[in-house]
Structure formats: structure tokens, C-alpha cells
Design a protein that fits this description.
Blueprint (H helix, E strand, L loop, with lengths): L1 H23 L10 H30 L7 H4 L13 H13 L5 H8 L8 H14 L3 H29 L10 E3 L1 H16 L2 H9 L3 H16 L3 H14 L5 H8 L3 H22 L1 H5 L1 H11 L9 H8 L23 H20 L8 H13 L12 H15 L6 H13 L3 H5 L12 H20 L3 H6 L7 E3 L1
Parallel strand pairs: 1-2
Helix pairs in contact: 1-2, 2-20, 4-5, 6-7, 7-8, 7-10, 7-19, 10-11, 10-18, 10-19, 11-13, 12-13, 12-17, 16-17, 17-18, 18-19, 18-22, 19-20, 19-22, 20-22
Length: about 500
């Protein structure tokens, strides 16, 4: 009852904030009136209006079906609590313990296939958790608590990255002038960025579960920020860190090589290769290469549970193949996978190849902008057989790039703002309560609403990238300069 009352109160508060934004159009504190600052305020105001609109729609639907928890507002309390999930860390601890206790047995055969623990990461991802235990005798629980703390703090860092990306996507004043922001305005923008993180459902879910995905979202955001500021080596470093967690992201190196982005590709490859060689030195070739069997199994089976927002998850549910809402008597099964379904497997492979192929060959003659890097990052997430809802936390830094540009370029004409609002609502908010009521019918395709929103975001990125191409001055320069901002 307390949760329901709190949810109603927060819903009313969101409705009030949305009304204030739309009716009175408040500005950013401390900004002097000018054409540039008006453009800045306009972009932030519309961003918050679209975000709040999605939060409000999600909250109303959740209350209507008596599922007040399954919204951004329902998960918001984790930011103010001591709750720390172990969704990534627990399987990592099990894997680490198995390596010490059974060094003669290939890790994945023993843990993933033998114990049915869903440790689906490469051994490079285990290094930061395992080395402090081996080298310094830090207890496993202490290492986990440290990473849980870092994960919580990283939400603040993601807010800073979001603010910088958003500002960089707004055009600089003409004539090379610098847009000066008072310190008061910077604090206000930082507060709005923190509010954006606090209302972004995929990030909240990631932190609630205790997912390493939160740290990967930060690394991906930093890569976009470095690319926006024309720092390809730093962007490559961040991409390399992402590849350590998800080796399939190595496709971004191929993408960079096709566009002759040598520095980016070299650094990303060097970081990934160094981590791989180090893992071989620590764990041996046998366990490292055994990860291939896990990748093969996951690509064949995927996941049918409703939060798998990919083509694979959509088709499993459409064929009623595997669990949708429950597995092994739990809300989610940590041991079960759907039975092999040839049609689902072939369709998953075909659509993944299609999406990745399009991203790789798209506009190869155009020097890639931050929109293009966003495009390939989002494609890598969506093309995976398993794309949990929290994996779409990546969309926060992507929208920081795309949203201001879309407002300026109007890629869908008069429909641009409504389409942005719908895209944000579907891809970044929860409609789990009402759509899960359709799980036992052919209408369960609506459970893939987040994947549909991500497709709309991907279409937006393609459209924005296409609109960049005809600008001869930008093509010659390599990429448009980010907005120059200083604080005084």
C-alpha cells in the first residue's frame, strides 16, 4: 500500500512538472538572454518534457494494472538506498571460486554447462574481480562491495558525460565565439542531467540488479564524448574496455578500419589484445578458448524471458518456445534456456548479420561523426541474441548526441518532436505491467516494445547520419566542431 501511495504521489509530481515545462517554459538559472542561450534552453526543456512524458505514461499504465514498482519511479528509490544487487558479481564469484578449486577443469564446462550458472562473460571480464583476491588476498565479498560502490558512483559520472555530450551536440555561436556559462547555470544543467539518469529505466534496472553493464554504459558514453571532441585514441581506449566485457563489440574495430580510423582501431585492438593475453597467462588457453562453446550455445538458444529485447526474444515468445514470465518457479530462471528452435536460430543469425552488415558499410566514404559511432554501438546491442532491458542504458548517451541534433535538423519534419517523444518512451521506460498481460496470446509481440523503440532510435541515427553527408564544409573538415563552453 505504501508503494502504491508513493507511486501516485510521484506520478502527480511528474504531471505537475510536465505542465510547468509546457505552460511557463522556465529557463536555466543564471543564463543571460541571447539567441544561443535560448536555443540551449529550448533543447533542454524539450528533452525534459519528452522524458517526463514517457515517465508519466509508464507510471499511469503501471498504476492501472496494479504494478506500481515496474517504472522508473518505482526503481528510483534504489538511488537513495543501500541496496546493491549481485546479478553480475555472484556468477563472477562462482567462476572465480571454481577456477581456484578445480584448475584442471575448463571453467565454462564446469560452471556454465555443469553447474548451470549463467556466467556468460569472457575471462577478461573476470580479471578485475579475480586479481585483487589472488595478488592482495582481498576477500571476495570485499571486492564485490568495492565494485558495487564504484557502480553507484558511476551513475553520477554518467550524468556528467550526458551533460557534456548534450552540450557538444548544440551548435557553437557563429564566428568562433565561445558560449560562456555561469557556474550557476552549469550546476543547474548538472542537476537536470542527474534527474535524467534518475528517470532512465534501463540504467535504474542495471543498478538495481548489480550489473556490470552500468560501468560499460559509462565507458561507452566516454567513448562517444572522446569522439565528439576529436580524441580517437581515448575513444579507442574506452571501446577496448567495452570489448573486454563483451568481445562481440570488437566489430567496432572492423568498422573503424573500413573508415581508416587507424588510431581508434589500433588502441581498441591493443587494449583488447593485452587483456586477452593477460587472461591466457592467468587462466591458461584451455579455459579462455572454452568461452567459444558458451558463445555458440547462446547464439543457438538465446533467451525467451520477456526482458530479452531482441529479435531472438521476440521470436521465442511468439512461438511460445521457453519461459516468458517465469522459469523454474522464479521470476527469472538462472539455469534454464529455451529449447533449440531452428526457425528462431536462423532468423536471429540472419537479422544480426543484416543489422551489422548495414552498420559496417553505411557511408564508408564519409568521415564518421559521433552520430555514426552511436549508430554502430546501438547496432551491436540490438544485434545480439540476448539484449536485456538494462543493456539499453547505452541509449542515454546516444540520445544526448541525437536529441539536440534532431531538434535542429528536423529529420521527420513536423513529426520530429512527437516521434522523439514516442521513441524515448518506448525505449527508455517500462511498460512491463500492461504488456505482460498479453504473454499467453499472439499479442505478446507487444512485449518487445523496448526493441521497437530502439529500432526507432536506430532509424533516427541513420537519418541524422544521412543528413550530415551533403554538407561539403563538414566533410572537408572531418566532423563539425562541438559547442565551445566555458564556465566563469
Amino acid at each position: 500500500m505504501k508503494i502504491y501511495i508513493a507511486q501516485v504521489a510521484l506520478t502527480v509530481l511528474c504531471a505537475g512538472l510536465l505542465f510547468v515545462l509546457w505552460r511557463w517554459r522556465p529557463g536555466i538559472a543564471g543564463l543571460a538572454g541571447s539567441r544561443e542561450t535560448q536555443r540551449l534552453e529550448h533543447a533542454w526543456r524539450l528533452w525534459l518534457a519528452c522524458l517526463l512524458g514517457g515517465v508519466l505514461a509508464s507510471a499511469v499504465f503501471a498504476l492501472a494494472v496494479d504494478e506500481p514498482r515496474e517504472t522508473s519511479l518505482g526503481y528510483l528509490r534504489i538511488l537513495l538506498s543501500t541496496h546493491a544487487g549481485e546479478d553480475s558479481w555472484m556468477p563472477m564469484l562462482r567462476a572465480s571460486a571454481f577456477l581456484r578449486e578445480h584448475p584442471e577443469v575448463p571453467l565454462y564446462q564446469g560452471v556454465f554447462f555443469g553447474q548451470h550458472v549463467k556466467f556468460q562473460y569472457p575471462l577478461t571480464a573476470l580479471l578485475p574481480l579475480d586479481l585483487p583476491q589472488q595478488l592482495f588476498g582481498v576477500p571476495p565479498e570485499g571486492v564485490v562491495r568495492f565494485f558495487q560502490f564504484v557502480s553507484r558512483i558511476s551513475l553520477v559520472a554518467i550524468a556528467v558525460v550526458f551533460m557534456q555530450l548534450f552540450m557538444g551536440a548544440i551548435p557553437a555561436p557563429p564566428g568562433g565565439r565561445v558560449l560562456h556559462l555561469p557556474r550557476r547555470s552549469v550546476f543547474a544543467l548538472f542537476g537536470l542531467s542527474v534527474l535524467s539518469v534518475a528517470m532512465f529505466y534501463p540504467l535504474l534496472r542495471s543498478e538495481y540488479h548489480g550489473q556490470i553493464q552500468t560501468l560499460m554504459t559509462l565507458a561507452a558514453g566516454l567513448a562517444l564524448l572522446a569522439w565528439q571532441r576529436d580524441q580517437p585514441r581515448l575513444a579507442g581506449l574506452m571501446m577496448g574496455l567495452c570489448c573486454i566485457i563483451k568481445p562481440q563489440w570488437g566489430v567496432v574495430v572492423v568498422w573503424a578500419l573500413l573508415r581508416r580510423q587507424w588510431q581508434f582501431a589500433a588502441v581498441a585492438t591493443a587494449v583488447t589484445a593485452a587483456a586477452g593475453l593477460f587472461a591466457v597467462g592467468v587462466y591458461g588457453w584451455r579455459s579462455v578458448l572454452d568461452y567459444v562453446s558458451v558463445v555458440s550455445f547462446l547464439s543457438r538458444h538465446g533467451e525467451s524471458y520477456f526482458i530479452n529485447q531482441s529479435v531472438n526474444g521476440l521470436l521465442h515468445r511468439l512461438f511460445f518456445n521457453g519461459v516468458n514470465l517465469q522459469g523454474a518457479g522464479l521470476v527469472w530462471s538462472g539455469t534454464d534456456f529455451p529449447p533449440y528452435q531452428p526457425v528462431v536460430h536462423l532468423a536471429t543469425v540472419a537479422t544480426s548479420l543484416l543489422m551489422l552488415g548495414m552498420a559496417l558499410v553505411w557511408r564508408m566514404g564519409k568521415r564518421p561523426s559521433v552520430v555514426d559511432l552511436s549508430l554502430v554501438m546501438l547496432t551491436l546491442t540490438m544485434a545480439s541474441p540476448i539484449a536485456w532491458d538494462h543493456h539499453y542504458g547505452l541509449l542515454l548517451p546516444v540520445f544526448a548526441v541525437a536529441f539536440p541534433m534532431a531538434l535542429r535538423q528536423q529529420p521527420w519534419g513536423a513529426w520530429t518532436l512527437p516521434v522523439l517523444g514516442v521513441t524515448l518512451a518506448l525505449s527508455c521506460q517500462s511498460f512491463v505491467g500492461p504488456t505482460n498481460l498479453l504473454a499467453d496470446s499472439a499479442w505478446n509481440v507487444l512485449q518487445s516494445y523496448q526493441f521497437a523503440g530502439a529500432l526507432m532510435a536506430l532509424a533516427l541515427l541513420y537519418r541524422l547520419s544521412w543528413m550530415e553527408q551533403p554538407r561539403a564544409a563538414e566533410v572537408r573538415a572531418g566532423r563539425s566542431e562541438p559547442a565551445a563552453v566555458t564556465v566563469y
